[in-house]
């Protein structure tokens, strides 16, 4: 992955800083160094959750990067407070080895993404790029969309990774118009869409294995993707994206034209160990952030549903438990409420 600095929008002459929260001095300095180098933004370091809340009140940051285990206030408590006080402020969880299960819980309560500390150099830049871009977009929504009641969209896009962020931005804008999803929820849906689209592009249409990234061959991963994007049979493949949003739910279908994969291996509860696998982290994020996740039989199409409260406070079944990301086998293309699910 390229380590180029993130471009700060020209209009931001005094950009908001990043806030790093870690009680370990050495870890905090290392994280601050990487964050500043990869983002191009000023960085403020804090030794704990309470100090972080004071800094946020004084300097509203662009994003918060926090450790999970701290003496005065653990990461989970900090994330819950930030979601209540500062909806839409993205939080990236930084995990040490052995804290994967705690990180998985953090994603469910409101974190926008996570990066294992041992992968800071290779993964932090991408996480910051995605989170900051979506967070900025969420603050510049067109108020006219709030008057829409329901809408459907259908895209057929080529294997061009530069089209994915604007597509995610376009799709997630609908959530604010629908209501029932706060800034953090909108950001999480955006992350899930980005991960699903990336899977469809790289692992589906271009058939590039995540093992290359797991082994540290990031450059070879993207080089192979570029090569295949221009040759047969990969070049002719497209990603079909459907979105259906109303006041009670957001329904998304993403289908690639690749060979698919064995979906039977997904019929297990989320494993915190997935946080350490490059190929498993995307799926972990999708399942943590979406309320329903379904693959078709051959594994080249996924349906994701996010339940919305809507203006009347309705929209979720009485027995619904948010953030569980149920994984079942079903035909993609049918809205979840209009078909029977084949377990």
Automatic annotation (TrEMBL):
<dbReference type="InterPro" id="IPR011006">
    <property type="entry name" value="CheY-like_superfamily"/>
</dbReference>
<dbReference type="InterPro" id="IPR003594">
    <property type="entry name" value="HATPase_dom"/>
</dbReference>
<protein>
    <submittedName>
        <fullName>Response regulator</fullName>
    </submittedName>
</protein>
<dbReference type="InterPro" id="IPR001789">
    <property type="entry name" value="Sig_transdc_resp-reg_receiver"/>
</dbReference>
<dbReference type="Pfam" id="PF00072">
    <property type="entry name" value="Response_reg"/>
</dbReference>
<feature type="domain" description="Response regulatory">
    <location>
        <begin position="17"/>
        <end position="132"/>
    </location>
</feature>
<dbReference type="InterPro" id="IPR050595">
    <property type="entry name" value="Bact_response_regulator"/>
</dbReference>
<keyword id="KW-0597">Phosphoprotein</keyword>
<dbReference type="GO" id="GO:0000160">
    <property type="term" value="P:phosphorelay signal transduction system"/>
</dbReference>
<dbReference type="Pfam" id="PF13581">
    <property type="entry name" value="HATPase_c_2"/>
</dbReference>
<feature type="modified residue" description="4-aspartylphosphate">
    <location>
        <position position="67"/>
    </location>
</feature>
<dbReference type="InterPro" id="IPR036890">
    <property type="entry name" value="HATPase_C_sf"/>
</dbReference>
């Amino acid at each position: 992955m390229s380590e180029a600095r993130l471009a700060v929008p020209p209009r931001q002459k005094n950009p908001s800083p990043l806030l790093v929260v870690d009680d370990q001095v050495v870890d905090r300095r290392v994280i601050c160094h990487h964050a500043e180098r990869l983002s191009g933004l000023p960085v403020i370091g804090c030794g704990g959750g309470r100090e972080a809340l004071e800094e946020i009140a004084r300097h509203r940051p662009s994003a918060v990067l926090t450790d999970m285990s701290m003496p005065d206030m653990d990461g989970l408590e900090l994330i819950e407070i930030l979601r209540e006080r500062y909806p839409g402020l993205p939080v990236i969880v930084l995990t040490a080895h052995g804290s994967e299960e705690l990180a998985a819980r953090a994603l469910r309560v409101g974190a926008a993404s996570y990066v294992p500390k041992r992968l800071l150099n290779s993964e932090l830049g991408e996480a910051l790029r995605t989170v900051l871009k979506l967070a900025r977009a969420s603050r510049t929504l067109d108020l006219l969309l709030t008057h829409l009641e329901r809408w459907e969209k259908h895209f057929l896009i080529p294997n061009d990774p530069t089209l994915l962020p604007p597509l995610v931005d376009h799709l997630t804008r609908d959530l604010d118009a629908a209501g029932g999803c706060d800034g953090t929820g909108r950001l999480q849906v955006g992350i899930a869409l980005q991960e699903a689209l990336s899977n469809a592009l790289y692992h589906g249409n271009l058939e590039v294995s995540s093992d290359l990234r797991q082994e540290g061959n990031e450059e070879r991963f993207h080089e192979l993707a570029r090569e295949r994007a221009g040759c047969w049979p990969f070049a002719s493949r497209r990603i079909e994206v459907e979105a259906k949003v109303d006041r009670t739910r957001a329904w998304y279908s993403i289908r690639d034209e690749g060979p698919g994969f064995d979906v039977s291996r997904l019929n297990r509860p989320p494993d915190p160990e997935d946080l350490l696998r490059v190929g498993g982290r995307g799926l972990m994020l999708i399942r943590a952030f979406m309320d329903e996740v379904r693959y078709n039989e051959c594994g080249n199409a996924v349906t994701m549903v996010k339940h919305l409260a809507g203006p009347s406070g309705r929209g979720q079944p009485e027995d619904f438990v948010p953030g569980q990301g149920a994984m079942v086998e079903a035909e993609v293309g049918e809205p979840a409420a209009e078909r029977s699910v084949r377990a």
